[in-house]
Design goal:
The structure is a homodimer. Chain A is elongated. The longest helix of chain A is centred in the middle third of the chain and has 32 residues. Chain A has 25 helices and eight strands. In chain A, α3 crosses α17, α21 runs parallel beside α22 and α24 packs across α25. The first copy, chain A, is mostly helical. The interface between A and B is large, with 68 and 67 residues.
Chain lengths: ~575, ~575
């Protein structure tokens, strides 16, 4: 019974904090919800626009996912909803499949959210979260810079009223330059000032307010409200001057009301086209979320459960899909506002969902005159903080190979798109890791005079013998590295014609897998064929037990020795003893 | 100048043995060539049939590749040419693209050989041979069993004269059972006795001949000549009784003469369809070849250069492609015959090519009545030795996870085909490896009373403190494992509310990549936020030098200490000293 409660609690963290929930916490969470809702409205509309979706889809993606995360999530501060990277990745995944504005496009986006959620939940239940470790820092950082640039370039289209064909950063820039003549001056007249206003607010408002005596937390929160002010002013401006008649693109009619339940189409061809982007969105969304969640949790010494977070984000994405939304993740700046405003429990997120629902029910008519330029400017300014070229130089100084992986991710993402760039970055990082891992440290060792110790012949003054070669491998034997040992032995045999014994020191070998065992068998066979006896020394107990289950020892001409000194003694006692006495005399 | 000669010698091993070549070696190599040629004729015809290609293509694949390998190869015994696994993989790759017997089918096979060769050469020049290490023993062994079964099942069609639809092992068995009624009794009357004859010869002839006083080497060689005897007898039998009129399928007209130079079509769609199978054929062919080459080289204490072998096999495949052949690799049984017959240099291979050329020029009319059943029987018996289910049980006893990877490879290859099975096997092995690698050993340590040593609190009686937590990581910090450390620190912080200092012992850390550095920064940031000072102890010199290039130390509240004892002393000298004196009193 107790065990069941424990399992339920681990899968439903709401049971833990829910029972302690009281009026004071509720009031706190409500205040937070009001603040985050106000911040989330422009973001949800803007990220929907970025993903090529109608604005209401952004609102829908900011309701059910938040409630589901409140039930399943372990972070008290993570604010789930549409974010920049996953929105761009949604565009990149769906645009080749369907035309923007069609029901097929929306259906594909919904399906993408569904598959993303499914993948996250499966990773969570199978405890495969470790797979996300393979997004290295250089790849994640390079992706951020490239995606930031691509999104910023893409938003120049709504901000300046220049039509573009979409696509990669490179395609966007070419398209912007080509169509520069078609700029809509009224749109630019709204977009450019909003960009400047938002930049100034972001850079200076918090400092100004703090200087004026305001608390730091409140100042940070107010500084994030710039987009809301810009929205209100530009709506009034467009409506007042009737600029929608001058070619300024506006949001127009946003259907009011709550989303119905929708099921993504189960179309095998569509699913297989979306599978790869869904995997990448799942991993990237998760990696970004968990890192914010852990950073914020640490400040209050709270713990975030990485596996449960997979399940929570998965549930949030499935929820988004079923309620007409698109892929979601934990937002960086929103989560910080959530934290600074004092969110005490995930209920703050659920209350935020209610806030967005109220907007969807009653306030959508007010958004009619909202210019796309304002939304574009909001995104443009938000993503600039993702661009960081300095980190390439810093990384280069520390680790050139890592900097190469980073540069490759940036260049390929800018030229061939986010999916290709990401896969290439992950591939190169993994290749570099596997390369490193396939070359274990193997040393030829000799006896240190006056001792029973054996050390690397390249680094120490040691005594060796032409007949007896001693070798030490400094890692466990697994399939990626065992061939290296085999090759090394072959080389040593070819180079030492007088050799009659090889002793392999296994003091650093903690484990030998089936391929490692085959490698040792091959080494033994080849040495036997060449008239050389193969010995092992300092083999750990569990490994001997494992090898005893096989025929390895029966086929071996040499023996197993407790210490390396014992091994040499058993072959050539005179040599071992005379070296031991060497510096004693 | 000397350097250029060295480079030339490393890329053209022929320069090394060629200059010492004399009449005695030549005579030796010529005798070997005659023996291997006789063995290679039925093999080359049979493997062409297995790959769905006309018989002459098998002969063509046994000329140019052998000469090119003689120039570039470093093994003195490896016999290059068509082999079972790559022939089946060629069938699996080309069959979905083109219909057997059409020029498109042949063009696709030629292109496959070209891409395979290109991949091998690129791997060789970029020294990427380590990638082939990632074919683990369970995958290679499982593949052998499954491919053996699939080929054997496929050859029941020519052996019994039952038409089948081809495909996977499962599809073949279903097809054989369904069409069993269409058996051609004359064909079966040839095929079944040949199978029995070959099995008996293979199993008993060598032993019988040795018993009769023949040298072991010669006995082994003669026992491999069974297929040639079977071919001669069945040709005479079919021709004598006119069985080709009774539905017995014969080889028919084999165009005589040498192949012209052919260029594979450069068709991007075709290349992208063949890319994945080409990578797999390159890797599998190489892994099988290098393992035979190394085993044989060891017997004479010779050395095989793994990287140069990539280039040599690549050249052989490109040669096959340009001269009308299909993918080739080093053959297991042929290489053993080559070795036993006493091949002294790779020239034996070049002479073998001349032997096959003479057959192609003058003897093809003799092959007219050769029944497909005989070729099928030859392959059937040859591949049976690849099937080994016992190894699954043996591996299970030693390492259950490896046995699972092996079983998965077998099952998926049998049901979904060799390409899917192979990719799944490699994928699962890599996942298991990455899982293991993503969980480094991290221990909480405490001071051993009476000493300055710190040991794992789970294994030793040690003194700990609620304020100072000591942690040791037993591996280098790389992107796959750094998240594990971060999570571990987060857990420890959440569990120890009184903690004010964390000391990370880095005695086993040999390297920290850019992701590892970011992880340490995150740990430092989170600890600082939680009011905990972060210290490092026993950091190796090169790592300190690397970290000094970054701002890491500036942002760190704690310090770097030479020994872990020093670290504790600097925080709480009383605790450290009293523990040190504990058992001295």
């Amino acid at each position: 019974m107790k065990r069941i409660v424990e399992i339920l609690r681990s899968y439903f963290p709401i049971l833990e904090w829910g029972v302690k929930y009281n009026r004071q916490t509720a009031v706190n969470d409500l205040v937070v919800a009001v603040i985050v809702s106000i911040m989330l409205i422009p973001q949800s509309l803007a990220y929907a626009q970025l993903a090529g979706l109608p604005p209401e889809v952004g609102l829908y993606a900011s309701m059910a996912p938040l409630i589901l995360y409140a039930i399943f999530g372990t972070s008290r501060s993570l604010s789930v909803g549409p974010v920049a990277v996953t929105s761009l990745m949604t565009l990149a995944a769906v645009a080749p499949i369907a035309t923007q504005g069609t029901p097929e496009y929306l259906a594909a986006a919904l399906t993408l959210a569904f598959i993303t959620g499914l993948i996250l939940i499966i990773l969570g239940f199978l405890k495969l979260g470790f797979l996300t470790n393979f997004i290295s820092f250089p790849v994640m950082s390079g992706l951020g810079t490239a995606v930031g640039l691509q999104i910023a370039a893409g938003q120049l289209s709504p901000v300046l009223g220049i039509p573009t064909g979409g696509g990669t950063f490179l395609a966007l820039i070419i398209s912007l330059v080509k169509n520069a003549g078609q700029i809509n001056i009224y749109t630019a007249f709204i977009g450019v000032p909003v960009v400047i206003f938002l930049l100034v607010v972001r850079k200076h408002l918090a400092a100004l307010l703090t200087k004026a005596g305001m608390g730091k937390g409140l100042a940070v929160i107010l500084a994030k409200m710039g987009p809301v002010i810009a929205i209100i002013i530009t709506i009034l401006f467009v409506a007042g001057f009737g600029l929608d008649n001058e070619g300024v693109k506006i949001v127009g009619t946003v259907p009011s009301g709550l989303p119905g339940i929708s099921f993504p189409p189960f179309d095998l061809a569509l699913w297989s086209q979306l599978a790869t982007p869904a995997v990448l969105i799942a991993i990237i969304g998760y990696v970004a979320s968990i890192s914010v969640a852990q950073t914020l949790a640490a400040k209050k010494r709270q713990h975030v459960n990485p596996n449960q977070e997979l399940i929570a984000l998965g549930a949030a994405n499935i929820g988004a899909s079923l309620s007409g939304g698109f892929p979601v993740a934990g937002g960086f700046s929103r989560s910080i506002v959530n934290f600074e405003a004092g969110a005490e429990t995930p209920a703050a997120g659920a209350f935020t969902a209610v806030g967005i629902a109220l907007v969807a029910l009653f306030l959508t008519p007010l958004l009619f005159f909202l210019p796309s330029a304002t939304l574009g400017a909001t995104i443009f300014v938000a993503v600039l903080s993702m661009v960081n070229f300095k980190v390439v130089r810093i990384t280069y100084a520390y680790s050139p190979t890592d900097a190469v992986a980073m540069a490759l991710t940036i260049i390929l993402t800018l030229t061939l798109g986010v999916i290709v760039g990401l896969i290439a970055g992950i591939g190169v990082s993994l290749m570099m890791y596997l390369y490193r891992t396939s070359k274990p440290h193997v040393a030829i060792v000799g006896q240190v005079p006056g001792t029973q110790h054996f050390r690397n012949i390249d680094r120490h003054e040691v005594v060796t013998s032409a007949r007896i070669v001693s070798m030490r491998i400094d890692e466990s034997l697994f399939f990626p590295n065992v061939k290296f040992l085999e090759n090394k032995v072959n080389e040593v045999v070819a180079e030492n014609p007088e050799m009659r014994h090889l002793i392999l020191n296994c003091s650093a070998v903690n484990s030998i897998d089936a391929s490692g065992l085959e490698g040792l068998k091959a080494v033994n066979q080849r040495l036997t064929d060449a008239g050389i006896a193969f010995h092992l020394s300092e083999v750990k107990g569990p490994i001997i037990d494992g090898l005893k289950k096989t025929k390895f020892f029966q086929d071996m001409e040499g023996r197993i020795h407790f210490t390396h000194f014992d091994a040499v003694c058993s072959i050539d006692p005179d040599l071992a003893q005379s070296t031991l006495n060497a510096s004693l005399g």
